[in-house]
Amino acid sequence: MLPAIFSTFVLARIALGQPNTNATCNPSFAWASNSLRQSPCLVAAYLGSVCDDGLFFVPALDNSLSFYQGPTVAQANSCGCSSAFYSLLGACAQCQSAQVLSWSAFSENCTTTYSQIYPDNIPTGTAVPHWAYQNVTGGTFNSTLAQLNLNAPESTANSQPTSATLPPGSSNTSSPKKSKAGPIAGGVVGGVVFICLVCIAAFWFIRRRHRGVALVPTPIGYYSDITFSSLQTPKLYNPSDPSTFPSPSASM
Questions:
Q1: pLDDT for residue 164 is more than 70
Q2: Which of 27, 221, 224, 236 is the most buried (most CB within 10 A)?
Q3: Distances (CA, A) of 238 to 100, 242, 246, 252
Q4: Into how many domains does the chain fold?
Q5: Beta partners for 113?
Q6: Which branch of life, at top level (predicted)?
Q7: Inter-residue contact 221 to 8 (CB < 8 Å)
Q8: Which residues contact 106 (CB under 8 A, 6 or more apart)?
Q9: 227 located within any domain
């Protein structure tokens, strides 16, 4: 049975005024919470909010076959393309007994990736565990490795580092991605992928709107500026209220 794709990047932005999450971690993942007792899901929301006007929401995953998807080309930014953000989301997925995408799959739409580092200023109100800076290049977030770094200092708005401590001779770097094909071929492939993503998103939206609940899980996506407006309830006919009169076309 293939893992279900449950649509982050829905990581949805909502107008609550601060980073938030409704994901609940299994008690066995208490080690993944920071010194402020914030779950990795909430810490991920804090890091994502830096590039999204302070508003970022990490939703709970539906089932064990769900996972958080990386940003689209349009949504890719320094926050979402940071391996620290990815590792926190990975821990968030695992603490819900769900799946984790590989770093390469998660960051495939990033022009530049930030390995073992968070390139922006850490926001106030949170603390980033040192294990979030583990090396995931060529692999996937490793919770076993993370638990070996629980005593290392956290990163906060008032302290450093915002990257992992690496052995001599190595360094934290941002890596511009290079296309394996030529620029033209890369552009064609990118265009096809973008069109496919747009079609999938449109199909998902229409199906959810008309059927209420999707029949198949989709990846939690990274959609920004989502707004929800309430539907107006139609007025009942009132002979004294002209606004309730049927339109001329309705009487034809």
A1: no
A2: 221
A3: 57, 8, 10, 20
A4: 1
A5: 175
A6: Eukaryota
A7: yes
A8: 68, 69, 70, 86, 89
A9: yes
